[in-house]
Design brief:
Keywords: ATP-binding, Membrane, Nucleotide-binding, Transmembrane, Transmembrane helix, Transport. The chain has helices at 13-19, 25-42, 44-58, 72-122, 125-129, 133-175, 180-184, 186-224, 226-231, 235-260, 263-287, 293-307, 313-334, 395-402, 425-430, 446-450, 459-468, 472-476, 495-509, 525-538, 574-580, 583-592, and strands at residues 356-364, 370-379, 384-389, 410-415, 418-419, 432-436, 513-517, 543-547, 559-564, 567-572. By secondary structure, it is α/β, with parallel strands linked by helices. The protein has a domain at 13-24 and 101-334: ABC transporter type 1, transmembrane domain (ABC transporter transmembrane region fold), CATH 1.20.1560. The chain is elongated.
Length: 599
């Protein structure tokens, strides 16, 4: 079972997220500074309005007149020019912080996505067997995009609210300390309400992320299996299943929306109390002469500028909760323990002779009975050995263990006398070429698929590998030759064509060890003959392990091993095994219809 590291108390989602910003400290400070300056200039117009009202009411005795400008037109002209400057600077800093925050969001989500995908690549196959591709795609794409949306606007909104509270609150206490409390009282109530809503929303958005993961899984599976859906005419059935998953996602979102939508209307009522108090009490003070009309104007405008932006806290917390639900899933993925770790011993390909030894190995898939039991096998360097047996006997499992796609439970596997656990994992797998029965071709050109794993290969080398694999003829008949796009999973090619491209890919890699896992299981006799000819060429002077159902393809192997229920029960050359008249001989008779004849 895949285990997980327990997150430390300090490893909460938000703090973990901030760790990704360490290398962007300069950009963060620039963004914060621009956000603060933008808000400072944004808060200046009420002061300008108050000064203008003061000019109209007080005329030559206004605040502006104290700076030596007694002419009313001159005073208003100064205020107009000052307004233009403030608006210009506000716009400049808004442009600056928008670019800085959005680019920072792109950089952070880019880093997290690469880290998460890199971690996923390092996980063992058992992890993927227990999870759907769609669920992983939901984390790597949709969840990280949710994080990006929060960073785009959320951080700036928080800075603006804090800056507004400090500047406006300070102005209130300076201008009218006796009524400032009316504007300040709603703030802690609003903050408390925001925190409370955050706690109520968290489980709802966690449910939303879970539902969208299930929906993405359904879509990914259906698109991958579209041929099966069409052939079994289950389109209506799949639409109904998709409708159920999509409806579950919609309903979970509606539950969250029902709560988040109530935030702003409730906050508005609290804001109304503070605004009304300033409007009434301040108005009475201004009418009685205890408060200057200009100051009263400033207070009314500042009250609105202080309290109304707090309504956006609802949207900010909504983004925050969505992002935290997503980042929790991403961090859970990053916390997934890697059970197969690389060794420290480097091994150059040129130094690999290809001697493989398996000593008393036992292996079982998760919570199952062992499929390989105390198996020992020695493969001399440069020799070709074959492994045959019934389906489920453990043949392909041996290949996965040799590549360390799974870890053995007990025993020891060595390559040229070195325990493969001690070898750098990249070096180990680079030295082994695998041609599987389940050929996977990427959506790209024939050339790209043959050179996959050998990015520096020239076209001449690619053509040479294709020629040895007897793929050159059919490739030249394709519409664009080597530049023909093969489609997702190579769906534009036949099974035999995909097999030959896979063989060409292995030839180009030129590994010291070649593994052929049912390489001719899904092709016709003519294609099998062509593949057999190419395999005869590429198995020269390299260790080759051939796993096959079709015994005709491995009859010339140096040694053939017969597996049954995870153990080797027969070994020998083709002729020796036929002479034993055991399981191998019986399999030969079933496949050929011939009686056993020993040459």
């Amino acid at each position: 079972m895949v285990s997980r590291n327990k997150a430390k108390p300090s490893d909460r989602p938000l703090s973990r997220l901030f760790n990704y910003g360490d290398k962007y400290q300069t950009v963060i400070w620039q963004a914060v500074t621009c956000s603060i300056l933008n808000k400072l200039f944004d808060l200046a117009p009420p002061a300008i309005i108050g000064a203008a009202v003061d000019v109209v009411v007080q005329k030559e005795d206004s605040i502006v007149a104290r700076f030596g400008i007694t002419d009313i037109f001159g005073q208003l002209l100064v205020l107009s020019l000052l307004s233009a400057l403030i608006w210009g600077l506000e716009s400049i800093f808004e442009y600056a912080y928008t670019r800085l925050w959005r680019n920072l969001a792109q950089d952070v989500q880019h880093d997290i996505r690469l880290d998460a995908y890199s971690h996923v690549q390092d996980l063992e196959l058992a992890y993927f067997e227990e999870r759907s591709t769609g669920a992983l795609l939901s984390i790597l794409n949709d969840d990280i995009n949710q994080l990006e949306r929060f960073l785009d606007v959320g951080a700036n909104e928080i800075i603006h609210v804090v800056t507004t509270a400090l500047i406006v609150g300070g102005s209130f206490f300076i201008l009218t300390p006796n009524i400032a409390w009316m504007a300040i009282i709603p703030i802690p109530i609003i903050i408390w309400g925001s925190v409370a809503f955050q706690g109520w929303l968290a489980p709802r958005y966690a449910e939303v992320r879970e539902k969208v993961s299930i929906l993405n899984s359904r879509l990914a599976n259906n698109l991958s299996g579209i041929t099966t859906i069409k052939s079994f005419t289950t389109e209506k059935y799949e639409i109904e299943r998709l409708r159920q998953d999509s409806n579950a996602y919609r309903e979970s979102n509606q539950k969250a929306i029902a709560l988040s939508a109530a935030f702003i209307p409730l906050i508005r009522l609290v804001i109304l109390a503070g605004f009304t108090g300033i409007l009434l009490y301040g108005g009475v003070q201004a009418a009685s002469g205890a408060l200057a009309v200009g100051t009263y104007s400033v207070l009314v405008f500042l009250t609105q500028r202080l309290l109304w932006p707090l309504t956006r806290l609802g949207q900010t917390f909504d983004l925050y909760q969505r992002a935290m639900a997503s980042i929790t899933r991403v961090m859970d993925l990053l916390d997934t323990q890697i059970d197969i770790n690389s060794g420290d011993t480097a091994l150059a390909i040129s130094d690999i002779k290809g001697e493989v030894s398996l000593k008393d190995i036992t292996f079982a898939y998760n919570q199952r009975e062992p499929v390989i039991k105390n198996l020992s096998l020695h493969i001399p360097a440069g020799k070709t050995i074959a492994i045959v047996g019934a389906t489920g006997s453990g043949k392909s499992t041996l290949v996965k263990l040799l590549l360390r796609l799974y870890e053995i439970k007990s025993g020891r596997i060595t390559l040229d006398g070195r325990n493969i656990k001690d070898i750098v994992l990249w070096d180990l797998r680079r030295g082994i070429g695998l041609v599987s029965q389940d050929v996977f071709l990427f959506h790209g050109t024939v050339r790209e698929n043959i050179s996959y794993g050998s990015p520096d290969a020239t076209l001449t080398q690619i053509v040479e590998a294709a020629t040895i694999a007897e793929a050159e003829e059919f490739i030249n008949e394709l519409p664009q030759g080597y530049d023909t796009v093969v489609g997702e999973r190579g769906q534009k090619l036949s099974g035999g064509q995909k097999q030959r491209i896979a063989i060409a890919r292995a030839i180009l890699k030129d590994p010291p060890i070649l593994i052929l896992d049912e390489a001719t299981s899904a092709v016709d006799n003519e294609t099998e003959a062509a593949i057999a000819r190419s395999l005869e060429k590429i198995t020269q002077n390299r260790t080759t392990i051939a796993i096959a159902h079709r015994l005709s393809t491995i009859r010339h192997a140096d040694c053939i091993y017969v597996m049954d229920y995870g153990q080797l029960i027969e070994r020998g050359t083709h002729e020796e095994l036929l002479a034993k008249n055991g399981i191998y001989a019986n399999l030969w008779r079933v496949q050929t219809g011939d009686r056993v004849v020993v040459n």
